[in-house]
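WARN retry 2 of 3 for item q-0093 after timeout on previous attempt; input resubmitted unchanged.
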Amino acid sequence: MKKISILGAGRMSHAMAFDLSRDFRVTLVDRDEEALELLKEKYGVETEKADLLREGEVARVTAGADLVIGAVPGFMAHQTLGAVIASGKNMVDISFGPEDPFEWDGLAREKNVTAIVDAGVAPGMSNLFLGRHAAMGPVQSFACYVGGLPVERKWPFEYKAPFSPVDVIEEYTRPARYRKGGKPVVMPALSEPERIDFEAIGSLEAFNTDGLRTLLRTMEVPDMVEKTLRYPGHRALMEAFRETGLFSEEKIEIKGTPISPLEVTAAKLLEHWKLEEDEAEFTVMRVDIRQEGRLRRYQLLDFRDPESGLSSMARSTGFAATAMARAFLAGLFEEKGIRPPEFLAANEAAFEFIMKHLKSLGVEWLSFDVQQG
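OK item q-0093 returned
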């Protein structure tokens, strides 16, 4: 039986353990003993406590693994990716940081390693769809809209975080890069809001975030944009937080103690944004791809599964990673180096494998042509 090490024991790892423990020997690694114990009890996986930021720890805890899956917070994502590659292990990674993963491409090739990065829902599935279309011919435009939201809207934020609040705040502060008319564009996060109506949900507000990632390097598409979806009103509130310095990492001194506003804000938002285990929530995503005058739409609306207890974001993100991991372990993709999902999708068999596996887990993507007026 093949061995898989999952680095990180957060919400996304629950979905990964749920799926992979059925067919593989899975070990979860984290420094949080309570989180590890919960995963061990629920899924019968092995666990190991470790501080992955300590030198040599990543190599030690992954020594016996046939594949490593990364699910660590954004601030440690790049370092962890590099450590896994340096140890000579193949990897599927959903961790999202501001750094360019291709910085590790040379090392990955030297170590004969395949590292599938940005292997979640967005980035991840969005890359997969674009990569499949690009393999068939030139693409004129790409737009991705995505958000994870609670069913019940609670004032003042009308939002709950399915992952670390610090990572969410990073989305609201990091400049958004996209492409328009074949030229690169950089805009502030939260900019250029627009309303989009979704059946069964209603009107949501979309705004710029920096989610295109590797697509800006790998895809020659004249127009590409990624926007985050929230309930109307949330964006303006977050913009006010940012502009008043509440997301600043620059330390200020209060009664002789230096502290960054971000530390305080993140701690308080954690209280308001904490997604309860049984709280109803959903993930909504739309990807529009224009090719040869035809507009193809891929759409997902996924809710928390009460039977498994898995949140929609854990399902849509975690299962995307496990589907890609299974495709790799099945030998459907063997190229070495940093390989984002758009590269996997060039292989039609790998693409179909991933989509079929997601459907078997109840994550169903609709795809259809949009009539253009």
